[in-house]
Design brief:
Elements: H1 8-13, E1 14-16, E2 22-25, H2 38-44, E3 47-49, H3 52-61
Antiparallel strand pairs: 1-2, 2-3
């Protein structure tokens, strides 16, 4: 059976953790940050896990 190709755009946005969950970065950090509070911008730096509803779909895009 042939190998599955990794979706390269998804590989740049998501990565798998040691336990197999999928991690992502938060949106809204690139521009229009002048109107956002410093606390809000600081919290956007942290990564977060993908929701369980989307985990199966994204898992197919990054199989390895």
């Amino acid at each position: 059976m042939p190998k599955i190709k990794t979706n390269r755009s998804a590989a740049k946005r998501f990565f798998k953790t040691g336990s197999g969950r999928i991690k992502r970065s938060k949106a809204g950090k690139n521009h229009f940050t002048g109107k956002k509070s410093p606390k809000r911008i600081r919290n956007l730096r942290k990564g977060t896990l993908v929701s369980e509803a989307d985990e199966k779909k994204i898992g197919k895009l990054i199989p390895y």
